[in-house]
Amino acid sequence: MADSDFPGWHGTTIIGVKKDGQIVIAGDGQVSLGQTVIKGTARKVRRLSPGGFEIVAGFAGSTADAFTLLERLEAKLEATPGQLARASVELAKDWRTDKYLQKLEAMLIVTDGKDLFVITGAGDVLEPEHNVAAIGSGGNFALAAARAMMDSDKSAEDVARQSMAIAADICVYTNGKLTVETISA
Fold it and tell me: Residue 53 is inside which H or E element, if any?
C-alpha cells in the first residue's frame, strides 16, 4: 500500500499544566487508524524514576518511537540525576543528529515538578510561556482551553481535565478517557 493510500494513525492529546506549585500532565486514551478507533484506553502518560528522581512524561505519536525516546531520556537522567533540562537538551541533540533517532515520530512533554518541557525531533526543548503545553491531534484545542482557564481559581488538575474534555468534544481523535499524573515541586 502506498504511503498516500495509508489512512495513518491518529490519536493522542497530551497537556501539561503548571499552576500553584503543581504540574499536571494529562493524556487521553484514543488511538485511531483512519476513521476507526482502534483503542480507547491507551496509557500515554507515565511516571518514571530514573536515579530516584520522579519524572512524569506524556507522549504523542508512535508508541514504539515514544518508548524508545523515554528509554533514552531515562538514560540521560541517570547520567545527570535531577537535571531534567540538561537531560532533555542532550536527548534533543541526539534525536536531531542520530540517523536512527531522526526517523522517530513522536513528541514528549516532560516534567520533574519544577520544570515543564516539550521535546521534539526537530531538536527543540521548549518551556511554555504561559505554563501550559499541549501536543497531539487535539493539542491546540486543549491548549486554547487551558490558557483561557489559567487566571481562574481552578487547580492545575481541574484546568487539565476540563481542557481535555473540551478537546475531546472538538477533536474526533481525542476521547475523554484520561490518564492524569500530578507532581509537585
Answer: none
Residue 11 has pLDDT above 70, yes or no: no
Query: Do 155 and 124 contact (CB within 8 A), yes or no?
Result: no
The predicted-structure confidence for 78-105, as pLDDT tens digits, reads as follows 999 999 999 999 999 988 887 777 777 8
Integer Cα distance of 47 and 64 in angstroms:
17
> Is it the case that residue 49 has pLDDT exceeding 60?
yes
Clarify whether 63 is annotated catalytic. Answer: no
Spot the catalytic one: 12, 13, 111, 174: 12
Report how far Cα 47 is from the mean position of its chain's Cα atoms: 12
Pairing of strands 179-184, 31-33: unpaired
For residue 3, give the C-alpha cell.
Answer: 504511503
- pLDDT for residue 64: 81
